[in-house]
Amino acid sequence: MVKIKQLNCSTTGFALPLVLILGSLLICSSLSLQSMAMQSRAKGIQLWQEGQLNDGFLTAAMAFVAAARHGESSPNQSLAAGIFQLESWQGSAYGPAQLKVQRLSSAGKPMRSRSFQLSSEAKLKPVSP
Q1: CA–CA separation, 90 vs 63, rounded Å?
Q2: Quick one: which of 12, 28, 42, 106 is 20 to 30 A from 1 by CA?
């Protein structure tokens, strides 16, 4: 007489669902990590570009102050192939003074402007962010 073993149905077939659940969990976590990395990279690029623009404004303001000290200041003076333009100047070239520099687009239209203050100690600091 042959004995037939009865299989326990509750312990069979758990490997495939476990592998599928773990695989989907790994995919979701890797996608979230990738999206966070891409977002961080985009934010880093944006901060770098904003820093470059701030440096450009400060450099242009320093160049306008140096030009004013040499007597070469004019209201429509442009720098860096016409990218930065002196919008307004109030005060002395040796301080205290208030100057406003604007950045022009490629079409020549004003995009942004920043104000700077020149102290009597010849220190230039931004007034507007």
Answers
A1: 16
A2: 12
